[in-house]
Specification:
This protein is of the alpha/beta class. Helix content is 34%, strand content 20%. It contains 14 helices and 20 strands. Bound molecules: guanosine-5'-diphosphate (GDP), 6-O-phosphoryl inosine monophosphate and magnesium ion. Guanosine-5'-diphosphate (GDP) binds next to α1, β3 and α12.
Length: 425
C-alpha cells in the first residue's frame, strides 16, 4: 500500500504527526516538495521533534528516508537536523537518500528572500525567509541553479558559484543597495556540505521504482498545504511549489496511479501563517482562545498563526484537486470548551451561492461565509481513545464536517502525542 499524506488547508495541519503514526506500517517515507519552510512536529512521550527537511519517518530507527528531487535542500538546516537527531540517539546512516536532482538553497537565496520581503513592505507575502522562492526561481531559470549532484563534483562548482554570486551581487546591489556577498565563503561552505552529504546523494527515482517493484510500502509526505499550492492556492500568497498532492509525481517521479490512498490532513478549525485571504478568520477572542489552547505559533518561524473556523469550502476544493479519499482531523481537543462551534459550509458573492472555492484572491475577497452552528463540547478530550467515547457533541461535530466536505474522517487527533489519536477504521 502506497499512501500520500497532504495538508488540505494553509499548512501546519498536523501532517508530521499523521506521517509518524502511519510510518509504523511503511518501510520508506518520502518528502517530495518544499524545503526548510516546512516544520513538521512529532511528539513521542516527552520527546518533541521539529523536522524541516527530513521526512517525519526519521524518528523511527528502521524507516528509510528519501528527500526526492522536488525538495529544495538547505544543507545547513539538514546537517543541523541530522546532528540534533544524533544527539537524541537516532542515526540516519544507511537510511537517508537525497536526490541528485534536488536543488540546493544557498546563502544568496535566503538573502534575496529577505531583501525582497523587506522591500515589499506592507505588500510582502510573509514568507518564512528560508530562500524557498528564490531557489525554485533559479530552478525554473536553470542557468544559475545548483543541484545536489553539483556537490559531488566540487571542483567544478567553484567557477559556477563565482559566476552566480557575481550575478546576484550586481542585482542585489542595484535593486536593494545590498552589501556584496563573498563567493569564496559560499564555496567553502559547499565544500563542507559536499564532505558531509555526498554519501547520501543518489538517484532516488530509480530507488523508489525498485522498491515499489519489490513490494515495499511507501509513504509520501506532503509539505505545506493545498491552499499554498503555487498553481492552485491563493496566489500570490502561496509557496513556490505544488504543495497539493498534485506535486507528488513531478516531485519524486512516481505517478499518482501507483499511489493507493490519498489522506488529507485538516485541523478541526483553520489556521494560516503569513499574509493572504482567509474568509473564516476569527480576529477576536475566540481566535485567541484557539491560538492559546492549540499553541498556534509557527514551528519554523515562531510567528502567531491566524485562526478561524473550519472552512468546508477550502477543504472540499483541496480534496477535489488532490484526489483525496479520506480525512485525518487533528486538534479536535483544541475546540473543547467553546459554547458553540461553527463550520463554514458555503460562500456567497452578492447573495449568490458560490459553487467552488475561488482561488482567485479578487473573487475570494468578495465572499461571505455561510455558517452552520453546532453546540460546543465542554469536556477535555485529550484522554479519549475511541470514537465511541467522545462526547455526543464532539461526534456530531465530526459528522457535520464529514457532511460538509463529503469525505469520511478516519483519524482524529485529540492531542499532540502519538497515542492521542483515534482510528475509526
Ligand atoms: P505540520 O506542519 O502539518 O506537520 O504541523 P505542525 O507540526 O507545524 O503543527 C501542528 C501542531 O499541532 C504541532 O505542534 C503538533 O504537535 C500539534 N498537534 C498535532 N495534532 C494535534 C492534536 O490532535 N491536538 C493538539 N492539541 N495538537 C496537535
Ligand atoms: P508545513 O509543511 C504553514 C507559508 C508562509 C507564507 C507562504 C510563502 O509546516 O505545513 P515560503 O517561505 O514558502 O516562500 O512562504 O507560505 N508557508 C507555510 N505555512 N506551514 C508551512 O509548512 C508553510 N510553508 C510555507 O508562511 O505565507
Ligand atoms: Mg508545520
Amino acid at each position: 500500500m502506497n499512501i500520500c499524506v497532504v495538508g488540505l488547508q494553509w499548512g501546519d495541519e498536523g501532517k508530521g504527526k499523521v506521517v509518524d503514526i502511519l510510518a509504523e506500517k511503511n518501510d520508506i517515507v518520502v518528502r517530495y516538495g518544499g524545503g526548510a519552510n516546512a516544520g513538521h512536529t512529532v511528539v513521542i512521550g516527552d520527546k518533541k521533534f521539529a523536522l524541516h527537511l527530513l521526512p517525519s519517518g526519521a524518528v523511527r530507527p528502521n524507516t528509510v528516508c528519501v528527500i526526492a528531487n522536488g525538495v529544495v535542500v538547505d544543507p545547513e538546516v539538514l546537517l543541523g537536523e541530522i546532528d540534533s537527531l544524533i544527539n537524541k540517539g537516532i542515526t540516519l546512516d544507511d537510511r537517508l537518500l537525497i536526490s541528485e536532482n534536488a536543488h540546493v538553497v544557498l546563502d544568496y537565496h535566503k538573502a534575496e528572500d529577505r531583501l525582497r520581503e523587506e522591500s515589499l513592505g506592507k505588500n510582502k507575502i510573509g514568507t518564512t525567509v528560508r530562500g524557498i522562492g528564490p531557489c525554485y526561481s533559479d530552478k525554473v531559470g536553470r542557468s544559475y541553479a545548483v543541484r545536489m549532484a553539483d556537490l559531488l563534483n566540487i571542483e567544478n562548482l567553484k567557477g559556477k558559484i563565482e559566476n552566480i554570486v557575481n550575478y546576484k551581487n550586481k542585482i542585489f546591489g542595484a535593486l536593494y543597495n545590498a552589501e556584496p556577498m563573498n563567493a569564496g565563503e559560499i564555496y567553502e561552505k559547499c565544500k563542507v556540505y559536499s564532505q558531509k552529504l555526498s554519501k547520501y546523494v543518489c538517484d532516488t527515482t530509480a530507488y523508489l521504482h525498485e522498491q515499489i517493484e519489490a513490494g515495499r510500502n511507501i509513504l509520501f509526505e506532503g509539505a505545506q498545504g493545498a491552499l499554498l499550492d503555487l498553481d492552485h492556492g491563493t496566489f500570490p500568497f502561496v509557496t513556490s511549489s505544488n504543495a497539493s498532492s498534485l506535486g507528488v509525481g513531478p516531485g519524486c517521479g512516481v505517478p499518482v496511479q501507483m499511489i493507493d490512498n490519498f489522506i488529507g490532513v485538516v485541523k478541526a478549525y483553520t489556521t494560516r501563517v503569513g499574509a493572504g485571504p482567509f474568509p473564516s478568520e476569527l480576529e477576536n477572542e475566540i481566535g485567541q482562545y484557539i491560538r492559546d489552547k492549540g499553541h498556534e505559533y509557527g514551528t519554523t518561524t515562531g510567528r502567531p498563526r491566524r485562526c478561524g473556523w473550519f472552512d468546508a469550502m477550502v477543504v472540499k476544493y483541496a480534496a477535489k484537486i488532490g484526489g483525496i479519499n479520506e480525512l485525518a482531523m487533528m486538534h479536535l481537543d483544541t475546540l473543547a470548551g467553546l459554547d458553540e462551534v461553527k463550520i463554514c459550509t458555503g460562500y456567497t458573492i452578492d447573495g449568490k451561492e458560490v459553487k467552488m472555492f475561488p482561488s482567485n484572491i479578487d473573487k475570494l475577497a468578495k465572499v461571505e461565509c455561510v455558517f452552520k452552528t453546532v453546540k460546543g463540547f465542554g469536556e477535555d478530550l485529550t484522554e479519549v481513545d475511541s470514537f465511541e467515547k467522545l462526547p455526543d457533541q464532539a461526534r456530531l461535530y465530526v459528522k457535520a464536517v464529514e457532511d460538509a466536505v463529503g469525505l469520511p474522517v478516519t483519524i482524529i487527533g485529540v492531542g499532540p502525542s502519538r497515542k492521542q489519536t483515534i482510528f475509526r477504521k
